[in-house]
Specification:
Blueprint lengths: L20 H15 L9 H30 L2 H8 L9 H16 L1
Length: 110
């Protein structure tokens, strides 16, 4: 979650983006000081990769539902035709095609 999305009073506190080395490097001294620890050199790459994997898995269904809602907004027939493996024809404008293509990579990769 982005700092700006946190509710008050949490958004008034220091925060770090768990997928950015620079952000983690800024918050590490604060945490070390809070527990009376020394700061050592830390390689955050493994931690960041785990956070990215977690976020991807955690957000999958939200993204999936959003993509299917967008599909449904083009035509209520699309989802039922996907379920039944039937072919349908839908006429789309160039703008609708561009919008459609914007969320297709998500559906194609999963």
């Amino acid at each position: 979650m982005e700092l700006s999305q946190l509710p008050v009073p949490l958004n008034l506190l220091q925060a770090a983006k768990a997928t950015e080395v620079s952000s983690l490097e800024c918050i590490l001294p604060v945490l070390a000081n809070a527990i009376g620890s020394i700061i050592s050199n830390v390689d955050f790459s493994n931690f960041i990769n785990k956070v990215i994997d977690f976020e991807s898995n955690y957000l999958f269904w939200d993204e999936c539902n959003a993509a299917f809602e967008k599909l449904n907004s083009f035509s209520s027939q699309i989802i039922s035709s996907l379920k039944s493996k039937e072919t349908i024809e839908i006429r789309l404008t160039k703008a609708q095609i561009n919008n459609f293509n914007s969320f297709m990579p998500f559906l194609e990769k999963k």
